[in-house]
Amino acid sequence: MSEPIKTDVLIIGAGPCGLFAVFELGLLDMKVHLVDILDKVGGQCAELYPEKPIYDIPAIPYITGQGLCEALMAQVKPFGPTFHLTEMVATIEKIGDPLFRLTTDQGKIFEAKIVVIAAGGGSFQPKRPPVPGIEAYEGTSVHYAVRKMDVFRDKRLLIVGGGDSALDWTLNLAPIAKRVTLMHRRDQFRAAPDSVNKMKALVAEKKMDFVLGQVTGLEGPGGQLTAALAKPDKGDPYRVECDVMLPFFGLTMKLGPVASWGVKLDDDLIPVDTATFESNVPGIFAIGDINTYPGKLKLILSGFHEAALMAQKAYHYVYPEKRLVFQYTTSSTSLQKKLGVA
Ligand SMILES: Cc1cc2nc3c(=O)[nH]c(=O)nc-3n(C[C@H](O)[C@H](O)[C@H](O)COP(=O)(O)OP(=O)(O)OC[C@H]3O[C@@H](n4cnc5c(N)ncnc54)[C@H](O)[C@@H]3O)c2cc1C
Fold it and tell me: Which numbered atom of ligand 1 lies nearest the CA of 288?
C-alpha cells in the first residue's frame, strides 16, 4: 500500500470552481491537492465547450471556456497546488475530527483535514459503443482512455471515432504501435482539420490505415481481442485484425462514487449551509454545480462566491488556534506577498 499524501485540503474536481477554491484557500495559507478524472483541468469548460464564449464572468465581458481555465491556472500559480489528473476519488473515510482518508481508483491515498467536493455534474464517463459483448473485453483489450502510451507499444490498435481524442491518439500512437487502424463511420471528422490532414498523410505514406464503418462485433478468447467485425454504410462487412480497440465516442456525466461518500444527498446534489457551504458532515464542503440550496443557480460565478465562504470556515478547522482577520488583496501586504506581487 502506498504512503498517504498529507494535505490541508483535498479538492475533488478541478473544474472552474475547484480551481478558484485553490486561490481562496491559498490566500488563507492552506495547502491544496486536487484530483480529477479528466486528463486536463477545467471541468465542463475545458471538456464540453472550450471554444464557446462565456459572457457572464464578472468584469470579463468575453472569454472562452478554455481561456477561463487558463486564466484560473495563472491566478492559482502562486499557491503551487498539486494536480492528480486521470484519477477518480473512489472512497472517503472519516478518521479524525475532522480528518479524512481518501483513495483513488489508481491506488493513491490522501489524508486531508478538509475535503472540498467540487465534482460538478459528477464524473465524466466514456460513452460505450453499442457492440454486443464488449464488457468482456473492457480493461483488458478495450480501453476508453490512454493512461500510459507504452502499454500499446508493438500492438495492433483499432482506434474508433472521428473527434479530437480519436485523431490525437491515432497520431500519438502510430509511431509506437505495430499498426494503427482508424475507423470512423464517415469521411468527415469533428477533429481539428490539422490533425485530420496529418492522419491522411500517414495513410498516404502507408504508415497506418483508415477504414469507413462501425464495429458490430468482437472476436477473441478470454477477453483478449484478436479481431473486430465491422460494417460500412455501403458495402460488405469486413474484419480488422487487432489486439486492442480504443473507442473514443465522447463522454457523459454520471454522479459516480459521490453517492457512496456518506454525505447527505438530495436528488443527487449535496445540500449545504449557505453561510459556509459545508455539507452535513463537518469538514466536508461542496461547491459549484454539485451542491444545492434554496435559490441555487448553476453558474460559475455562484461557485466562485461559494469557494470564498467555504475557505473562511475551512480555515478554522485547519488553524483552530488562530484568529482570522479579513483583508483585501488591494491593501494587504501580507496577501500580496503570498501572491508574489509585493
Ligand atoms: C454548454 C455549456 C455552456 C455553459 N455556459 C455557461 C456560461 O455561459 N456561464 C456560466 O456561468 N456557466 C455556464 N455553464 C455551466 C458551467 O460550465 C458550470 O456551472 C461549471 O462548469 C461548474 O463548475 P464546477 O467546477 O462546479 O464543475 P465541473 O465544471 O463540472 O467540474 C467538475 C469536475 O469534477 C470532476 N470529478 C467529478 N467526480 C470526480 C471524482 N469522483 N473524482 C475526481 N474528479 C471528479 C469531473 O471530472 C470534472 O472535471 C455552461 C455549461 C455547459 C455544459
Answer: 26
pLDDT digits (tens, 9 = 90+) for 125-168: 889 999 999 999 998 999 998 877 899 999 999 999 999 889 99
* Residue among 133, 92, 128, 84 nearest 112 (CA): 92
* Whether residue 240 has pLDDT greater than 90: yes
CA 287 – CA 256 distance, rounded (Å)? 17
44 lines ligand 1 (CB under 6 A): yes
* DSSP of 54-72: E--BTTBS-EEHHHHHHHH
Q: Answer whether 7 contacts ligand 1 (Cβ < 6 A).
A: no
Q: Which atom of ligand 1 is nearest to the CA of 49?
A: 1
DSSP 75-96: HHGGG--EEEES--EEEEEEEE
Can you point out the beta strands (E) in the chain? 5-12, 32-36, 53-54, 63-64, 82-85, 89-96, 99-104, 109-117, 123-126, 156-160, 179-184, 209-212, 214-219, 227-231, 238-241, 244-247, 251-254, 270-271, 284-286, 291-292
pLDDT at res. 125: 82
Using left for φ > 0, alpha for ψ between -120 and 50, and beta otherwise, residue 165 falls in alpha
- The Å distance, Cα 260 to ligand 1 centre, comes to 21
Question: Does the beta carbon of 65 sit less than 6 angstroms from any atom of ligand 1?
Answer: no
Residue type for position 267: D
User: Can you tell me whether residue 168 is helix, strand or coil?
Assistant: helix
Is a pLDDT exceeding 90 seen at residue 342?
Answer: no
Residue 225 Cβ contacting ligand 1 at under 6 Å: no
The angle formed by the CA atoms of residues 63, 69 and 71, to the nearest 5 degrees, is 70
Predicted confidence band of residue 255 (pLDDT cuts 50, 70, 90): confident
What 8-state DSSP symbol labels residue 256? Answer: G
pLDDT recorded at residue 107: 94
SS3 at position 284: strand
Peptide bond into 61 cis (omega under 30): no
Distance, CA of 320 to CA of 233 (rounded, Å): 66
3-state secondary structure of 327: coil
